[in-house]
Design a protein that fits this description.
It contains 3 helices and 6 strands. With about 110 residues, it is α/β, with parallel strands linked by helices. β3 and β4 form a beta hairpin. The protein is elongated.
């Protein structure tokens, strides 16, 4: 590989957008739900784990409990907390700012 190809590869690594894993948010069925509903829920969880998705499960929790993450799965007690967890996994829409440079009398970003 020539020096030019190596430099081009490094530039592509830096400049090309990285693929983001998708977020899968599921709500746990009621404890008295039929077995078919629970089987479908477990199947969806297994499929999301196999795809490598960020998995957020909405489960019954006490109001004093905080969302927790175990083995790559985030457990939330309310839909609001689940939406916050999903939003926190999205990339920032703001570009990273470089330090201000002096350009004459003005500061240029």
């Amino acid at each position: 590989m020539s020096a030019l190809q190596r430099r081009l590869a490094r530039l592509e690594d830096v400049l090309l957008p990285k693929p983001r894993p998708s977020v899968c948010m599921l709500s746990e069925p009621a404890s008295d739900a039929p077995a078919e509903t629970w089987a479908e829920y477990r199947r969806q969880v297994d499929e999301a784990k196999a795809r490598g998705d960020f998995l957020i499960l909405l489960v019954p929790m006490k109001p004093t409990d905080r969302p927790r993450t175990e083995k790559g799965v985030t457990y939330c007690g309310s839909e609001f907390e689940a939406q916050l967890a999903a939003a926190s996994m999205l990339p920032s829409r703001l570009r990273q700012r470089e330090p201000a440079e002096r350009h004459g009398e003005k500061l240029v970003w």
